[in-house]
Amino acid sequence: xxxxxxxxxxVIGEARRFRRDETGTIAMTMGLATIPLIFAVGAGVDYGGAxxxxxxxxxIADTAALAAVDHQAISGTAAAAQATAQSTFxxxxxxxxxxxxxxxxxxxxxxxxxxxxxxxxxxxKSNLFMGAFGYPSTxxxxxxxxQAGLSTxxxxxxxxxxxxxxxxxxxxxxxxxxxAATSAQGGCAxxxxxxxxxxxxxxNPGGVDNYTLANQLGVVTRMENLASATQSLMSTASATEGSxxxxxxxxxxxxNNSGLNxxxxxxxxxxxxxxxxxxxxxLEVYDNNWLTKTDNNNDTDTDFETAMSQINSIMPLPGLxxxxxxxxxxxxxxxDGVDDEISSTCSQSLDGNRCQQPFSxxxxxxxxxxxxxxxxxxxxxxxxxxxxxxxxxxxxxxSQIGPNLESCASPGMFFSVTTxxxxxxxxxxxxxxxVAAARLTK
Length: 442
Description:
Shape: elongated
Structural class: alpha/beta
CATH architecture of the largest domain: 3-Layer(aba) Sandwich
Largest sheet: 6 strands, mixed
Distance between the termini: 41 Å
Number of helices: 13
Order of helices and strands: HHHHEEEEHEHHEEHEHEEEHEHHEH
CATH superfamily of the largest domain: von Willebrand factor, type A domain
Number of domains: 2
C-alpha cells in the first residue's frame, strides 16, 4: 500500500503545479488539470481493487492457519500441519485474478500449551491506471495466526456398578411387565440373579430367579444396556482418537460387595476392550441375604469406598498427556449411587451394622486432588413408593443421591439418565465432555 500513497502524493503535487501555472489560456489550464484528476480516480480504482484482493488473501490465510490446528491435523506432526497450511493457501490464492503470490510461509510450532500456526504472505496486484505513473503493481502483505490445544493422550478407567440394584428393568414398560409377573413377591422390578432361587420361594414359573424370568419375558435390564453402551463407547473412543492409536487407553472394572472385578486391564487395543465389555453382568448371589452358600452377608452388595480405594491405587499420577509425557487420567463412574455395606459409622443402620446411604465423596476428593478427573454417569435410583423397604431405608435420602454423585464429579463432567433414558447416548455424551475437558496444564 506504500506505492499507492506515494502515487497519490505525486498526483496531488502535479495538480497543485498546474493550478499555479498562469501561462496560456484558461481552457488549456483546465485541460491539463484534468489529466491528473483522471489518474487520481484511476488510482482510487486500483486502491479499491488492492483492498479487495487483500481481504480475500487474509481470509485464505485464516483458512490455511486453521487447517493446521483442526481435529485431523492436530493428531499429526507439526511438519505435516505446516505442509497442509501452505498447500491450502496456494490452492485458494491461485484463483484470485491479477494477483501473484510472491511468497507464502507457514510456521507451525508445538509446545506444552498447544499448537500455534502462523501463515504469512506477500503478493502483488496488477494496477490498471497507476502503471502510467511508474507503478505497475501494488504490494500486499498479511498474516494469520491460529492456536489450539494438542491432542491429549488419556487413560480411561471405567468403574461400573454391577450390584443387584443396577439390574432393574430399563424401561417403564419393562418395569410394569416384571411387577405384573412377580405378584407372588409383591411385585418386583429387579432382575436379581440367584444361583439358589428355590430357597426364596419366588413363585416364578419353573422356580427360576428374576434374572432368568426377565430373559424369558424379553425384558431388557439396566445392566444389559450398560454392557452394550460400554461396547459402543469403545467404538466411539476409537473413532475419536483418529490416526493416533495410542491416544486413548481403556480399563474396565465392575464393583459390588467386594471391591473391583477386572473386566479389562488398561489397554490401547480398544477392539479387545469392546469384546471384553460383553462380559459385564450383574452380581450373582446365592439367594436372599446370602452372597454364597457359606456367606450370609445380609445383602450388603455395594461397597463403593473399597472400590474407590482399590482403583485409586491402580491409577498412576497423571501427566500432561503430550507424546513426551505420561497420559492424563480419567475415572469414569457409572452407578445408581447407593451404598449397601457393613459399616459401624453409618448415618442410618439397618439390621446390625448394615448401612444404606449415598456414596461417601471422601475418596472422590482424594482422587481429584491427585489431578485425576472424575466423570460420573448417574443411572437414577428408581423410587419404589409401594415398597416398604424402599420407603423405610431409601426414600429418606432419595433426593440426596444425585447431588451427592454430582459433587463427586469434576466440573462439567456429570450426567444423569433416568428410566427409559438412553444409557448409550449418555455415556457417549459424558465421554465427549471428558475429552473436551482434557487440557494441557503447563
